[in-house]
Amino acid sequence: MISFNWVIVLPANLTAEKFDKWYLGIHTEYAKVAHKIVRYSINRRVAQQPAVAHGEFFRIAQEYWEDWDSMVACWNHPTGHALLGDGLVNMGLDPGTLPGIALTEHTQFDVASPAQFSTFRRGYRARPDGTITKLIAFGMANDRAGIKKWYADRFADLGRHDLVREHVFGTTVGRTIEIGYLGALPNADMVSYDWNLELWFDSSADAHAYLASEPFGAMFAQLRGVSSNTLAGLFRGQEMLMLNTALPHRDD
Question: Whose C-alpha in 4, 6, 29, 45 is 20 to 30 A from the C-alpha of 82?
């Protein structure tokens, strides 16, 4: 899948409450019906951030399509235009509000105890409200072509730790979405990150315990050492959309 990650900074003219009233009440409804979208996750920073957190961020929006062509088709479809237009008139699409994006393909690494999802509650089972805690990080790689293998060779086994519920590392597709005759994403004023990292936890307490550990600190220092312009934070994430593709029946 192709993931479109928006780094969102709270607009200077809006309070968090006013922003979320619009974002949760209106904008997410546009996103959920975006053309060919297969997953949509919204994430808001938690108040208590770990020591590894750095950079400016308020929310991270994550949108997923099956492939590149499907994503491009969305942003050139009336639903994509409506989504961009709603963002433009309510928060702006300038680098002060949307300083960076990541267009990435993901590697999902094995974890010992994966997050459990409830189709009835439409959320994660560990919390009554169905949300989950995520570390989300982005960066520019000193070696863009080699960062995927470099990371996998060193850190593919992070999910062996019993607190880690999901482990994903995405790397850039290195392309620009052409929108209409004049639009493009990323635009010239946006950072387009080379990689993004996600680690999921059942609770913020579990996340803080793991992220404060020496093994994680050493790992993250190495990742930052081969990168520049990095950003990292702890978020509470909510799935807004789930589409399942039926699989052939198996008896085993």
Answer: 45
